[in-house]
Amino acid sequence: MELNKQISKQNYYSFLWHAVFLALATNFMDVDTIIPAMIVDAGGSALQLGILTAIMLGGGRFAQLFFAPFLNNQSSKKGYLLGGINARIFALGGMALLFYFSPNINDGFIILSIFTLISLFSFSGAFANINYVDILGKSVLQEKRKSFFSIKQVISSIVVFLSAFLARRVLISYEYPVNYATLFFFSAALLGIASLGFWKIKEITASNFKINGLVKYIKIIIKEIHTNKKLRYYLFLINTQGISIVLMPFLILYAKRIFSAGSQDIGDFLILKVIGGVLTGSILFYYSRKIKYQLMLYTTSIIAMLIPLFILTLSGSVLFPYIFLAGGIVFTIHRIAISGVLLEITSNNNRALYTGLTGAGGILPVIFPFLGGWIITEFGFNLFFILFIAVILMSFYFIYKIDCKK
């Protein structure tokens, strides 16, 4: 079966179906606000928050390195995509049950269970993502991809905006731990509905080059990094600008410690983050044919750097909540640009391999939350913010070198 406009259109809307219901679920399991607040409310320390953030935002991607050889050898990946999604649904259902019965469970066991279930959620998401990117790249026409990423962000952001109020309502209407049990129940149910879109996908299979054994896999990785300059710069980019997406969980910790933020405040932060995503996604969709990925990457780094600078210079300002608006802008532009650039530097034959490689290549976003949790515990927030700014500054060079023209 060859890709044509009709198949591409059907797959386009199937992916959008998933995006819409995933967006509905996102606020109930938001990795930047809900989950960090959850671990703090459950008695977790700054270091434990750092570890959990590393698992959520980096550990899963690192696991892609081990998934990639197996998945690269599969010509059809739809079944594996559904398997990964179902594992995520199971993990979210487990979280709902954990918090519902938590009054009768030892605190230490609760923390351990959170780490176990979030790890399953993250690793299965990484497994599913390799298949998602590969199928999207093969089964949607190239000229429709930037449009897809932009309209996906617009629709998703609008849906997320509406669901943010419901998530906020749940947070403030119920006491801990029933509020988190309810949030995770909704997220599991909505993610299940979202997965229905993948059943309608008509996957265009492709014969990838085979990877036989670990030694050959390592040789292929070394060769690809050595021969593909854009891949090298892309790896450096996701290791510098990539830390921008791990900042907000620490801002939640900062808000709880400095401002004694409660459930209502967390709900407000979530809404501000979503507003930033809606506005940004709308602008990028409208100008999708004119705005190049490189400009989007520069904008991401500039705003990401300004957030901690604002906190360092205006600590205690009443404007603090609005940094989550800026955080939503950073998250949205980074996600669209990084996904788009990856599709541009890959082909149908190597996309699964590159997705796994670049996911695993993001080592610093995995290490940085660990380091951040330790620095905050030992030295406070100021040193953490200064280190964050220094790493973001390095990303400008790699954005310049990757020189993505599209």
In terms of topology, how is this protein built?
Layout (H helix, E strand, L loop, with lengths): L4 H22 L7 H8 L4 H27 L5 H23 L6 H33 L5 H29 L4 H22 L14 H14 L1 H12 L6 H12 L4 H24 L6 H21 L9 H22 L6 H11 L2 H16 L1 H22 L4
Helix pairs in contact: 1-6, 1-7, 2-10, 3-5, 3-14, 3-15, 4-5, 4-7, 5-14, 6-7, 6-11, 6-13, 9-16, 11-13, 12-13, 12-16, 15-16
What does it look like?
This protein has 406 residues and is mainly alpha-helical. The chain has a single domain, classed as Growth Hormone, Chain: A (Up-down Bundle). It contains 16 helices and no strands. Helix 1 (5-26) packs antiparallel against helix 7 (178-199), helix 3 (46-72) packs parallel to helix 5 and helix 12 (293-313) packs antiparallel against helix 16 (381-402). The mean pLDDT is 81.
